[in-house]
Specification:
alpha/beta; 29 strands; 38% helix
Amino acid sequence: MGDIAIVGIDCAFPGAAGVQAYWDLLMRGGSGIGPVPAQRWEAREFPAVCGSGGFIDDADVFDSDFFSVAPREAAAMDPHHRLLLPCAWRALEDSGRAPGELSGTETGVFVGVMGGEWGRLTMSDLARVTPLLGAGSSAGMAANRISYHFNFTGPSLAVDTACSSSLVAVHLAASSLHTGECDTALAGGVNIVLSPSLGLVYEQLGLAASDGRCKPFSADADGIGRGDGVGLVVLRRLDDALADGQRVYAVLRGSAVNQDGRSNGVIAPNRWSQERVLRSAYRRAGTTPDRIAFVEAHGTGTVLGDAIECAALGAVHGTERGTPCAIGSVKGNLGHTEGAAGIAGLIKTALALHHRIVPAGLHAGRENPRLRLGERGLRLLGSPMRLPRGESLAGVSSFGMGGTNAHAVLATAPRAPRPAAPRTSRPTGALAPRGAVGVFTLSADTPEALRRNLAAQAEAVARRPRGAAATLCRSSNRVKTGLPYRFAATVRDTGELVDALREAAARPDAAGGAARPWGRPVVAFLFTGQGTEYPGMTAGLHRESPAYRRHLGEADEALAGHLGTSVRELILSGDTRVHRPEFAQPALFAVGYALARTLTSLGVTPAAVLGHSLGEYAAAVTAGALELGEAARLVARRGALMSELPRGGGMTAVAAGPGELAEVLAREPEVVAAAFNGPADTVLSGPVDALGRIAKELDLRGTKARPLPVAHAFHSPLLAPAAADLRTLPVRCAPPALPLASTRYGRMLRHEPMDAGYWADQIEEPVLMDTALGALVADIAPTHLIEIGPRSGLLEIAARGGRAAGAEFLHPAPGEAATGRELAETVAALHRCGLDPRWEELYEPEHRVVETLAPYVFSAAHRYWDRQAPAPAPAPVHEPVPAPAAARAGDDDPVLLAVVEAVSEVGGHPRERVVREARFHEDLGFDSVMIMQLKNRVEARLPRAGEVSVQQMLPALRSVGSLAAFLGDVIMARSA
């Protein structure tokens, strides 16, 4: 057999709600046994059954809204199904993946469940039978529910081999993974003690413990005590899990299942079959019994069962070995969890291998001498047993009442490979990983759920020692995304993270880093031109962003052959030559290219690009109009040509429009308008002395005029010699793959090539920024403008011009103080607005490891526990019913109110939840059966609509409001 990795776990057992609570219970030798809750049955009414057992707290709680299950359907569902759904979600989270990521995949689901007690309790009164109850009471639906709600399309089956069901389910899941039926599998089991009936059976068979406690292998053992339990593990082929960087709790080396055949009785255990299943499992695992450090035995605490199992274990493990094989059974802590017994033992064993310590047995202090454990090479653990370094192996047994036996062999996980070294090493003086920035993400299905989970994460993180947060952030990006309401905060350490989480959780409006996006952001990149350069630009980002380092290196390589030096070193060293055109222009191009490529590698794909003057080169590369190497050649030549021009020219930014400047420009014919950035935002270019005279005149008028830090009159006739040279260059260009707003033409580029003529005209003609930005906004209606350059300039221009009033402005590198935080904040802002980034690009390789996060906290507001069958929905009435309360304040449409009443009646929702915008499937949990019932109710409440087929209704079943509008139209048409 190939190795199978256990990569995710979730469980709830008596006294242990969650994996950590379960491990704590085991390590402290705790017991989950207590009195029978009155909710289950009145113990005094059944004196023949012990009044104690292992019971899960809040087994009736179910977040039906989260799983889009209507209240009426939730009430009809078997509680086993209700426990499995949140358990599956948390197990998948624990595996290091967002559960929604697996939607539509051939993920398998294998669930062990024993009997169908819910069906017997609820279906015996035929007058109360409903379609929802028929589906809800089927034990076979236990796995199907998970597959349906998570949209898994792989094998999905419930397994009932009595007490061995859940370990057999794991065996079948591993087989499915081996054959390639699925790449991920959920496997486990569930058990809820719903009634005393099976307890009566155990009592009559002489198998029931007098105190409701299993005492395996103890001199005090006197039978079985029953217990609740639910547990699921996420399984993957080991190679796949390691390749994806998943944490591995333990490795399933092999497993086997067999049957007793004809023995002393159909419910009597068979020693020889138990021996055979152990030997078969070890053979499949490629190991021998002497290598097994401990066995999590079936160990029910019955006199006969313990004796037969110990004889079988001794026959197999009683070989020459340095230390006797340790045995134990978690039933001593939990009771016999029946259909979940195998998974309880498997999870205990996986955790023991993961922590490299085996918990002591709860009842090991009074070993049963009749079992002759020492003679058989076995021992009980009176104290925890530490596992030695290197690989350790363990076995898990689970035997069914009807003779189906299962045994699994687990091993410690292999040492996780170190994260791959970065392609571009972190530069000298870079921040240590402790100070690295990350984005912590969280999502939930409602604002209240988001606040609840923010608070839970805050408390979980607060319990950690203060330290780096990057690995936690990266884990949250992989696991805590995908639900409608989103939170994202940029942090460096856990203290900062706790503060951000608590602040957001305290906000009643779920603001403060949280939002519900209804679409994806529409992003435009604005590339800055010359004048924004400075020594050491983007050095802080370069220290912290591996993606930026990589892409700046690409630009540096492309430019090196043309410049004869490293532009990257020039940029980062603080060299003042960065102000000279021959270096400033290649340096700004390199920064623009690297910033844009960093963002696109993070999943930020622009819907359009715009470049201001020199910025058009990087914009053209981003849009696919120029290759990097071609653009690098052109930019290097452009800079060299401009450096050869005589000095004495300059540029001045003026807070005035062309009309206001016409008179002063007429008096200074050598000065031209070089850039039209906005209605009152013009840049003049020409000789420095002429610009000075204009500035003085404007100052007297009260018009602001500011000289720009350049030594040439760009975008003026003084650049004609450079333009003539550029016009002769061959240029390989292509039509842009993205919409490109041309500041040369002041509009969206159409069919014009970005050839030599374009670039020659571009340096001596004015920059038409204002009209180009207006065209971009009209074309794509951006939600976000992102400035691409080493400091801000274009965003201020856009704000002054008012061209994109509704857009959010972002800048990943806004100036000299910028670090990696601004890039992270840019991605966080876009994520809150609907972007699903490629988060890995944000982190150094050493931060790409799995950290355990607190599991999702479901709502406890709804409880469903009625041992009587839920009453059927009322039969259709045949005359209109008085109108209910309005679906929302101000709604008085009688058709809408009738639909609200019908929806509430069929689904069992409170009327205030059935609002106009509520969607039938996603929000109200309606399925095809409920839609048919809704059709009947609607026809009864709206007789003027007549009979409407489901086929006619289907297009209108988007929401409550759309159905009401459709029915209103039907009534109007039939009344005409």
